[in-house]
Design brief:
Distance between the termini: 26 Å
Number of helices: 4
Strand content: 35-45%
Helix content: 10-25%
Shape: globular
Largest sheet: 8 strands, antiparallel
Radius of gyration: 17 Å
Order of helices and strands: HEEEEEEHEEEEEHHE
Mean pLDDT: 81
């Protein structure tokens, strides 16, 4: 079974937040996933960065050999990871998205896949799960149905919300994991929905 590294990734992202360093990686160096920008902003002059709408780009990747595409935030850096089908993040803003999955023949059901992953989420010395934030609901995108499981974890005083979208596609059980500060979800609910609706097999 693939090693689930969500807590390690979260710790690394939070450790880098506030360090003042930025990664200057060109798009050609960001990994094998291809991306094309989708303009989401207006051309109004003198608009502060905090007021600008977030741009999305389309990326392509494979889940267990099946090609997929999805829109992600344009500023995120695509980072190759042999354990994941897709991995992107903005370390400075503590935002990230990871995707991986298994063939449907490898599990009895999507629920079985979900429960196996959920059982790996426990508080550690570095990251504490706030049990009162744990939630699980049915979830449906424009193309697939499944579950949304989420919770907030605390690392060195910082709260980070982790959303796990378990989706059943034609051939796979896929997990789309979005990590960000709680305020990101509050401000960008429609954007998150657009991203999840764009996840589809090609």
């Amino acid at each position: 079974m693939k090693k689930w590294i969500i807590f390690t990734v979260m710790a690394v992202m939070l450790a880098g937040c506030g360090s003042g360093g930025t990664k200057e990686t060109s798009k050609s160096e960001k990994g094998t996933a291809s991306a094309s920008s989708t303009e989401q902003t207006t051309s109004a002059p003198e608009v502060s960065s905090s007021e600008k709408k977030i741009e999305l780009k389309e990326v392509d990747f494979d889940v267990e050999g099946t090609p997929y595409k999805m829109k992600v935030i344009d500023s995120w850096e695509i980072i190759p990871d042999e354990e994941l089908s897709f991995n992107a993040e903005d370390e400075d803003k503590v935002q990230g998205l990871m995707i991986y999955g298994f063939k449907k023949t490898d599990f009895e059901s999507l629920a079985a896949f979900k429960d196996l992953i959920k059982n790996q989420f426990v508080s550690t010395e570095e990251i504490e799960i706030k049990e009162e934030t744990v939630s699980e609901t049915a979830y449906k995108t424009a193309h697939y149905e499944g579950y949304l499981y989420n919770f907030t974890g605390t690392y060195e005083g910082a709260n980070v919300q982790m959303n796990f979208y378990f989706l059943e596609t034609e051939s796979d059980y896929a997990l789309v994991n979005l990590i960000a500060f709680p305020s990101f979800y509050d401000k960008n609910g429609d954007l998150v929905t657009e991203m999840l609706n764009s996840f589809v097999a090609e």
